[in-house]
């Protein structure tokens, strides 16, 4: 489905010029000739991106931009400001109002199209990034796995999560729970190299993509790095005791081990796959196998034979 772009400009020649060039690139284009109409069109059908002329009747581009940003229905749309002005102060006003980019007239249509594509791509990438860890989210994770399968790469999928995380949250609260998630993210960053991919699925779930050859070595490194400093997340008495005590809904005091990491891994080294979800399914099963053992554990599936370690 083509992205919908709203172009708002009171100059009919520029409006037609921009509309034509965007349609040639395959975009669906909506138009408006003043600020009020731009808001009405955007509310009627929320676009992927809005191109706003700064100087328009009724409401200028800055006002429209601000209203789009403060309306929950349109707060996430991409916005590019279009103006004849080239002063830095005008650009600052547009960016302060919430614009993603700024183009000064006269402009090259190729530049306009390039900026539209770049803004849309950058925004999608940012939306896919975990706000907590800054790691790629599900959209980029899926795209990266699909790419590797399509390119015929031999690779491994490591599926990870924390053990005893609920007990940690119950004991220390969600803010420190977020710190534990960030700790695992830091461990993964330190254990991996630039050619390995890390993604944050959500909560305490992560994925790492690596070569089949590096799968076990990386799993060992993650386990070792995680266990090395995990006690720093705890209050001294809990760290010394090696457990946390949590009171359940019935008033009973229950004791839980410290956080550990469970890893399940699958590779297409000996079993080529057409769909990345086949690897994810096996990796998830192997993670469940890991979680049955105490402490930080990894389990790797190769031709149906599990290799595990702690």
Structural account:
By secondary structure, the chain is an alpha/beta fold. The protein has two domains: 4-128, Rossmann fold, CATH 3.40.50; 138-309, Reverse transcriptase/Diguanylate cyclase domain (Alpha-Beta Plaits), CATH 3.30.70.270. The chain is 45% helix and 25% strand. Strand 12 (297-302) and strand 13 (305-309) form a beta hairpin. The longest helix is centred in the middle third of the chain and has 20 residues, at 109-128.
Please tag this protein with its features.
310 residues; alpha/beta; Alpha-Beta Plaits; 13 strands; elongated
CATH architecture of the largest domain: 2-Layer Sandwich
Number of strands: 13
Largest sheet: 6 strands, mixed
CATH topology of the largest domain, which one?
Alpha-Beta Plaits
Quick structural gist:
This protein is α/β, with parallel strands linked by helices and 310 residues long.
How would the blueprint of this fold be written?
Layout: E1 4-8, H1 12-24, E2 28-32, H2 35-44, E3 49-53, H3 61-70, E4 78-83, H4 88-97, E5 101-104, H5 109-128, H6 138-150, E6 155-163, H7 165-172, H8 174-191, E7 197-202, E8 205-211, H9 215-229, H10 236-241, E9 243-247, E10 253-257, E11 260-267, H11 276-291, E12 297-302, E13 305-309
Parallel strand pairs: 1-2, 1-3, 3-4, 4-5, 11-12
Antiparallel strand pairs: 6-8, 6-11, 7-8, 9-10, 12-13
Helix pairs in contact: 1-5, 2-3, 7-8, 8-9
């Amino acid at each position: 489905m083509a992205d919908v772009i709203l172009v708002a400009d009171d100059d009919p020649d520029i409006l037609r010029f921009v509309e034509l060039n965007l349609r040639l690139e395959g975009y669906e284009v909506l138009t408006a000739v003043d600020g009020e109409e731009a808001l009405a069109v955007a509310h009627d059908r929320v676009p992927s991106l809005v191109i706003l002329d700064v100087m328009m009747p009724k409401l200028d581009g800055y006002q429209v931009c601000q209203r789009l940003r403060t309306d929950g229905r349109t707060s996430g749309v991409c916005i590019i400001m279009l103006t004849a002005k080239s002063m830095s102060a005008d650009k600052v006003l547009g960016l302060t109002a919430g614009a993603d980019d700024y183009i000064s007239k006269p402009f090259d249509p190729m530049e306009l199209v390039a900026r539209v594509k770049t803004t849309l791509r950058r925004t999608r990438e940012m939306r896919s990034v975990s706000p907590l860890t800054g790691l790629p989210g599900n959209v980029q994770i899926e795209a990266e796995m699909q790419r590797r399968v399509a390119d015929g790469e031999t690779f491994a999928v490591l599926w990870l999560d924390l053990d005893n995380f609920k007990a940690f949250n119950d004991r220390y609260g969600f803010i420190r729970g977020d710190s534990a998630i960030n700790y695992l993210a830091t461990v993964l960053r330190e254990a991996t190299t630039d050619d390995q991919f890390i993604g944050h699925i959500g909560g305490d779930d992560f994925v790492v993509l690596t070569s089949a050859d590096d799968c076990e070595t990386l799993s060992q490194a993650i386990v070792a790095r995680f266990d090395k400093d995990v006690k720093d997340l705890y209050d001294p008495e809990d760290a010394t005791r090696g457990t946390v005590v949590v009171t359940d809904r019935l008033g009973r005091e229950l004791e839980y081990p410290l956080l550990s990491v469970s890893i399940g891994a699958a590779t297409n080294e000996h079993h080529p796959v057409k769909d990345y979800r086949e690897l994810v399914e096996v990796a998830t099963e192997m993670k469940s196998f890991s979680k049955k053992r105490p402490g930080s554990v990894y389990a790797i599936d190769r031709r149906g034979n599990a290799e595990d370690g702690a």
